[in-house]
Design a protein that fits this description.
Length: 198
């Protein structure tokens, strides 16, 4: 008995090993006309295996390109569509630059720091206080998600003062935090399932 793990790895597993074997056999056919007929038949079978919702032209183009790819671009036939070159298919996109930011408190994130920096530049005292309070609510929500035990109003006020170098402050005597929403990671019942009443 031979397991699939012992066989050659499939180029496109979605078509199955049967299609892979048919394509491998087609590559070995010496007569060009017979090879072309075989390729046409394989594409029809591929279309029946994976029906596409795309338009007929798009679907046909995709199937012939898949056929070329499964054959490792060794199938010498007259393709009815333009085949994407192997180099282009196998080319990897350039990695995206990842913005590395120095975050003071990772559980708050970079946007909280950025917003507090922006709040310091606002001249209108009422608007500056409003933004500070909005950020404070977000910070408490972040603490709830990160670690419920550290969710403390005084800690949020202290962190705002520290972030802004004393330029922004949260008066806990006159400010009431919004209700903190339930985190999908830490349900309010502590992960315990509620028992149904009989």
């Amino acid at each position: 008995m031979q397991y699939n793990t012992q066989r050659e790895q499939l180029v496109m597993p979605e078509y199955g090993r049967g299609i892979q074997m048919m394509v491998d056999m087609a590559v070995e056919i010496e007569d060009r006309e017979e090879r072309q007929r075989c390729a046409n038949t394989i594409v029809k079978i591929m279309a029946s295996l994976l029906p596409s919702t795309a338009s007929k032209e798009d679907n046909e183009h995709r199937l012939w390109n898949h056929l070329a790819r499964i054959s490792h671009y060794k199938l010498d036939i007259d393709y009815p569509v333009n085949i994407v070159p192997q180099e282009e298919v196998q080319a990897h996109p350039a990695p995206l630059p990842y913005p590395m930011k120095d975050i003071k408190r990772r559980h708050y994130g970079y946007l909280v720091e950025q917003t507090l920096d922006y709040a310091k530049t606002i001249e209108d005292a009422e608007m500056r206080q409003y933004i500070t309070e909005c950020v404070a609510n977000q910070m408490k929500q972040d603490l709830f998600i990160w670690n419920r035990d550290s969710m403390d109003n005084a800690l949020v006020a202290q962190d705002i003062d520290r972030y802004s170098n004393g330029e922004l402050n949260l008066d806990l005597d006159h400010f009431t935090f919004e209700a903190v929403g339930e985190s999908p990671l830490q349900p309010s019942d502590g992960g315990k399932k509620r028992k149904r009443k009989k």
